Amino acid sequence: MLQYLKESTFKANDVVLRALALLKNHYFSIAGLCFLLFVTSNLSSYLAMTLSDTNAYAIKALLCFIFLTLFFGTQLVLIKRSLLLARGIEHADFKDYIPSTKQFFNFLLGFILYSFLVGLVYLLSSIITFPLLYLDVDMETLSLEINPFITGIIMLFVLIRITFFPYFMVDKKFHLFRSCRLSVALTKGNTISLLLLFMVIGMAYMLQASCEYLDYFIIAKAFSFINTFVIIPSVSLVMAVAYHDMMKDYQGGDDPELLKNII
Protein backbone atom coordinates (compact mmCIF):
# COMPACT_ATOMS: atom_id res chain seq x y z
CA MET A 1 0.00 0.00 0.00
CA LEU A 2 2.84 2.39 0.87
CA GLN A 3 4.52 1.63 -2.44
CA TYR A 4 1.27 2.46 -4.24
CA LEU A 5 1.10 5.79 -2.45
CA LYS A 6 4.66 6.57 -3.51
CA GLU A 7 3.70 5.98 -7.12
CA SER A 8 0.59 8.18 -7.03
CA THR A 9 0.51 11.61 -8.61
CA PHE A 10 1.24 13.32 -5.32
CA LYS A 11 3.33 11.22 -2.94
CA ALA A 12 1.06 10.97 0.08
CA ASN A 13 3.80 10.05 2.55
CA ASP A 14 5.98 12.97 1.45
CA VAL A 15 3.01 15.34 1.62
CA VAL A 16 2.16 14.25 5.16
CA LEU A 17 5.76 14.57 6.39
CA ARG A 18 6.15 18.06 4.92
CA ALA A 19 2.79 19.13 6.33
CA LEU A 20 3.75 17.86 9.80
CA ALA A 21 7.05 19.75 9.57
CA LEU A 22 5.12 22.93 8.76
CA LEU A 23 2.72 22.25 11.61
CA LYS A 24 5.60 21.80 14.04
CA ASN A 25 6.98 25.24 13.15
CA HIS A 26 3.63 27.05 12.97
CA TYR A 27 1.48 25.05 15.34
CA PHE A 28 -0.07 27.85 17.36
CA SER A 29 -1.28 29.88 14.37
CA ILE A 30 -2.98 26.82 12.81
CA ALA A 31 -4.22 25.23 16.03
CA GLY A 32 -5.50 28.61 17.21
CA LEU A 33 -7.79 28.85 14.19
CA CYS A 34 -8.93 25.25 14.74
CA PHE A 35 -9.65 26.07 18.38
CA LEU A 36 -11.76 29.03 17.25
CA LEU A 37 -13.73 26.67 14.99
CA PHE A 38 -14.18 24.29 17.92
CA VAL A 39 -15.42 27.04 20.25
CA THR A 40 -17.74 28.50 17.60
CA SER A 41 -19.29 25.12 16.82
CA ASN A 42 -19.80 24.09 20.45
CA LEU A 43 -21.00 27.50 21.60
CA SER A 44 -23.55 27.68 18.77
CA SER A 45 -24.83 24.19 19.69
CA TYR A 46 -25.09 25.17 23.35
CA LEU A 47 -26.96 28.40 22.61
CA ALA A 48 -29.26 26.58 20.17
CA MET A 49 -30.30 24.18 22.95
CA THR A 50 -30.58 26.99 25.49
CA LEU A 51 -32.78 29.15 23.27
CA SER A 52 -34.82 26.30 21.79
CA ASP A 53 -37.78 26.98 24.10
CA THR A 54 -37.83 30.75 23.67
CA ASN A 55 -39.68 32.85 21.12
CA ALA A 56 -36.86 35.36 20.59
CA TYR A 57 -36.71 34.76 16.85
CA ALA A 58 -34.81 37.97 16.12
CA ILE A 59 -32.07 37.00 18.57
CA LYS A 60 -31.94 33.48 17.14
CA ALA A 61 -31.60 34.83 13.60
CA LEU A 62 -28.88 37.27 14.67
CA LEU A 63 -26.91 34.58 16.51
CA CYS A 64 -27.29 32.21 13.56
CA PHE A 65 -25.88 34.87 11.22
CA ILE A 66 -22.98 35.64 13.58
CA PHE A 67 -22.00 32.01 14.10
CA LEU A 68 -22.31 31.14 10.40
CA THR A 69 -20.10 34.10 9.53
CA LEU A 70 -17.55 33.17 12.19
CA PHE A 71 -17.50 29.46 11.36
CA PHE A 72 -17.25 29.64 7.58
CA GLY A 73 -15.11 32.77 7.66
CA THR A 74 -12.61 31.11 10.01
CA GLN A 75 -12.47 28.05 7.75
CA LEU A 76 -11.52 30.25 4.81
CA VAL A 77 -8.89 32.04 6.91
CA LEU A 78 -7.48 28.62 7.85
CA ILE A 79 -7.31 27.63 4.18
CA LYS A 80 -5.57 30.90 3.27
CA ARG A 81 -3.04 30.49 6.08
CA SER A 82 -2.36 26.87 5.13
CA LEU A 83 -1.86 27.73 1.46
CA LEU A 84 0.61 30.49 2.29
CA LEU A 85 2.61 28.16 4.53
CA ALA A 86 2.58 25.46 1.84
CA ARG A 87 4.23 28.00 -0.49
CA GLY A 88 6.84 28.93 2.08
CA ILE A 89 5.26 32.30 2.94
CA GLU A 90 5.40 32.57 6.72
CA HIS A 91 4.32 36.18 7.09
CA ALA A 92 1.67 38.10 5.17
CA ASP A 93 -0.44 41.22 5.61
CA PHE A 94 -3.56 40.86 7.69
CA LYS A 95 -5.75 41.68 4.68
CA ASP A 96 -4.35 38.66 2.84
CA TYR A 97 -6.07 36.37 5.33
CA ILE A 98 -9.51 37.98 5.21
CA PRO A 99 -11.89 36.31 2.71
CA SER A 100 -13.91 38.52 0.41
CA THR A 101 -17.70 38.63 0.58
CA LYS A 102 -17.82 36.78 -2.75
CA GLN A 103 -15.58 33.99 -1.45
CA PHE A 104 -17.62 33.69 1.74
CA PHE A 105 -20.96 33.37 -0.04
CA ASN A 106 -19.54 30.97 -2.65
CA PHE A 107 -18.19 28.79 0.16
CA LEU A 108 -21.51 28.89 2.00
CA LEU A 109 -23.38 28.15 -1.23
CA GLY A 110 -21.13 25.13 -1.80
CA PHE A 111 -22.06 23.77 1.63
CA ILE A 112 -25.77 24.34 0.96
CA LEU A 113 -25.65 22.68 -2.47
CA TYR A 114 -23.72 19.69 -1.09
CA SER A 115 -26.36 19.27 1.63
CA PHE A 116 -29.09 19.47 -1.01
CA LEU A 117 -27.25 16.87 -3.09
CA VAL A 118 -27.12 14.53 -0.08
CA GLY A 119 -30.90 14.70 0.18
CA LEU A 120 -31.30 14.17 -3.56
CA VAL A 121 -29.01 11.12 -3.58
CA TYR A 122 -30.87 9.68 -0.59
CA LEU A 123 -34.17 10.16 -2.42
CA LEU A 124 -32.86 8.45 -5.56
CA SER A 125 -31.42 5.64 -3.44
CA SER A 126 -34.81 5.19 -1.77
CA ILE A 127 -36.51 4.92 -5.16
CA ILE A 128 -33.97 2.40 -6.48
CA THR A 129 -34.07 0.21 -3.36
CA PHE A 130 -37.86 0.39 -2.96
CA PRO A 131 -38.40 -3.03 -4.66
CA LEU A 132 -36.45 -4.62 -1.79
CA LEU A 133 -39.59 -4.20 0.30
CA TYR A 134 -41.19 -6.91 -1.83
CA LEU A 135 -38.30 -9.19 -0.87
CA ASP A 136 -39.29 -8.89 2.80
CA VAL A 137 -36.63 -6.30 3.67
CA ASP A 138 -37.86 -4.29 6.63
CA MET A 139 -38.73 -0.63 5.96
CA GLU A 140 -36.75 0.52 8.99
CA THR A 141 -33.68 -1.39 7.81
CA LEU A 142 -34.07 0.10 4.35
CA SER A 143 -34.51 3.70 5.49
CA LEU A 144 -32.09 3.74 8.42
CA GLU A 145 -29.32 1.39 7.26
CA ILE A 146 -29.24 0.53 3.55
CA ASN A 147 -30.14 3.91 2.04
CA PRO A 148 -27.91 5.95 4.39
CA PHE A 149 -25.01 3.58 3.63
CA ILE A 150 -25.45 3.91 -0.14
CA THR A 151 -25.84 7.68 0.16
CA GLY A 152 -22.75 7.92 2.35
CA ILE A 153 -20.57 5.97 -0.09
CA ILE A 154 -21.70 8.04 -3.08
CA MET A 155 -21.34 11.38 -1.29
CA LEU A 156 -17.91 10.42 0.05
CA PHE A 157 -16.63 10.07 -3.51
CA VAL A 158 -18.35 13.31 -4.49
CA LEU A 159 -16.66 15.04 -1.55
CA ILE A 160 -13.27 13.63 -2.54
CA ARG A 161 -13.63 14.97 -6.08
CA ILE A 162 -14.72 18.47 -5.05
CA THR A 163 -12.61 18.72 -1.89
CA PHE A 164 -10.30 21.36 -3.37
CA PHE A 165 -13.00 23.77 -4.53
CA PRO A 166 -12.42 26.16 -1.55
CA TYR A 167 -8.72 26.26 -2.45
CA PHE A 168 -9.48 27.37 -5.99
CA MET A 169 -11.89 30.00 -4.68
CA VAL A 170 -9.27 31.35 -2.27
CA ASP A 171 -6.22 30.89 -4.49
CA LYS A 172 -7.53 31.70 -7.96
CA LYS A 173 -10.61 33.70 -6.91
CA PHE A 174 -12.87 31.58 -9.14
CA HIS A 175 -16.60 31.19 -8.56
CA LEU A 176 -18.11 28.04 -7.04
CA PHE A 177 -18.96 26.01 -10.13
CA ARG A 178 -15.68 26.72 -11.90
CA SER A 179 -13.81 25.81 -8.71
CA CYS A 180 -15.73 22.53 -8.49
CA ARG A 181 -14.91 21.65 -12.11
CA LEU A 182 -11.23 22.38 -11.48
CA SER A 183 -11.28 20.28 -8.31
CA VAL A 184 -12.79 17.35 -10.25
CA ALA A 185 -10.09 17.74 -12.91
CA LEU A 186 -7.29 18.05 -10.33
CA THR A 187 -8.34 14.97 -8.35
CA LYS A 188 -8.67 12.78 -11.43
CA GLY A 189 -6.24 9.89 -10.88
CA ASN A 190 -5.73 10.74 -7.20
CA THR A 191 -9.00 9.41 -5.83
CA ILE A 192 -7.53 6.39 -4.01
CA SER A 193 -4.83 8.43 -2.27
CA LEU A 194 -7.39 11.00 -1.16
CA LEU A 195 -9.74 8.22 -0.05
CA LEU A 196 -7.05 6.81 2.24
CA LEU A 197 -6.51 10.28 3.69
CA PHE A 198 -10.25 10.71 4.27
CA MET A 199 -10.40 7.29 5.95
CA VAL A 200 -7.72 8.34 8.45
CA ILE A 201 -9.61 11.56 9.16
CA GLY A 202 -12.94 9.79 9.41
CA MET A 203 -11.57 7.12 11.75
CA ALA A 204 -10.79 9.71 14.41
CA TYR A 205 -14.28 11.18 14.17
CA MET A 206 -15.91 7.75 14.19
CA LEU A 207 -14.05 6.86 17.38
CA GLN A 208 -15.29 10.07 18.97
CA ALA A 209 -18.89 9.48 17.80
CA SER A 210 -18.78 5.84 18.99
CA CYS A 211 -17.62 6.87 22.45
CA GLU A 212 -20.36 9.51 22.65
CA TYR A 213 -22.96 6.94 21.57
CA LEU A 214 -21.73 4.48 24.23
CA ASP A 215 -21.72 7.26 26.87
CA TYR A 216 -17.95 7.11 27.37
CA PHE A 217 -17.91 10.83 28.09
CA ILE A 218 -14.27 11.25 29.13
CA ILE A 219 -12.91 9.17 26.23
CA ALA A 220 -15.17 11.04 23.78
CA LYS A 221 -13.82 14.37 25.05
CA ALA A 222 -10.28 13.05 24.71
CA PHE A 223 -10.92 12.19 21.05
CA SER A 224 -12.57 15.58 20.58
CA PHE A 225 -9.41 17.20 21.96
CA ILE A 226 -7.23 15.10 19.63
CA ASN A 227 -9.40 15.98 16.63
CA THR A 228 -9.33 19.70 17.43
CA PHE A 229 -5.66 20.12 18.23
CA VAL A 230 -3.97 17.34 16.21
CA ILE A 231 -6.11 15.91 13.40
CA ILE A 232 -7.71 19.08 12.02
CA PRO A 233 -4.51 21.20 12.07
CA SER A 234 -2.59 18.36 10.41
CA VAL A 235 -5.25 17.79 7.76
CA SER A 236 -5.46 21.52 6.99
CA LEU A 237 -1.78 21.61 6.07
CA VAL A 238 -1.81 18.20 4.37
CA MET A 239 -4.58 19.34 2.01
CA ALA A 240 -2.82 22.65 1.32
CA VAL A 241 0.51 20.94 0.55
CA ALA A 242 -1.27 18.35 -1.62
CA TYR A 243 -3.08 21.11 -3.52
CA HIS A 244 0.17 23.02 -4.02
CA ASP A 245 2.01 19.94 -5.32
CA MET A 246 -0.83 18.78 -7.56
CA MET A 247 -1.21 22.25 -9.08
CA LYS A 248 2.46 22.23 -10.08
CA ASP A 249 1.85 19.03 -12.07
CA TYR A 250 -1.61 19.98 -13.37
CA GLN A 251 -1.66 20.10 -17.17
CA GLY A 252 -5.35 20.89 -17.72
CA GLY A 253 -7.01 24.16 -18.58
CA ASP A 254 -8.38 26.88 -16.32
CA ASP A 255 -11.99 26.02 -17.15
CA PRO A 256 -12.19 22.25 -17.74
CA GLU A 257 -15.33 20.40 -18.76
CA LEU A 258 -16.96 18.45 -15.97
CA LEU A 259 -18.01 15.29 -17.82
CA LYS A 260 -14.55 14.68 -19.32
CA ASN A 261 -12.94 14.55 -15.88
CA ILE A 262 -15.45 12.59 -13.82
CA ILE A 263 -13.85 9.22 -14.66
Automatic annotation (TrEMBL):
<feature type="transmembrane region" description="Helical">
    <location>
        <begin position="57"/>
        <end position="79"/>
    </location>
</feature>
<feature type="transmembrane region" description="Helical">
    <location>
        <begin position="191"/>
        <end position="210"/>
    </location>
</feature>
<keyword id="KW-0472">Membrane</keyword>
<feature type="transmembrane region" description="Helical">
    <location>
        <begin position="146"/>
        <end position="170"/>
    </location>
</feature>
<feature type="transmembrane region" description="Helical">
    <location>
        <begin position="27"/>
        <end position="51"/>
    </location>
</feature>
<keyword id="KW-1133">Transmembrane helix</keyword>
<keyword id="KW-0812">Transmembrane</keyword>
<feature type="transmembrane region" description="Helical">
    <location>
        <begin position="104"/>
        <end position="134"/>
    </location>
</feature>
<protein>
    <recommendedName>
        <fullName>Beta-carotene 15,15'-monooxygenase</fullName>
    </recommendedName>
</protein>
<feature type="transmembrane region" description="Helical">
    <location>
        <begin position="216"/>
        <end position="243"/>
    </location>
</feature>
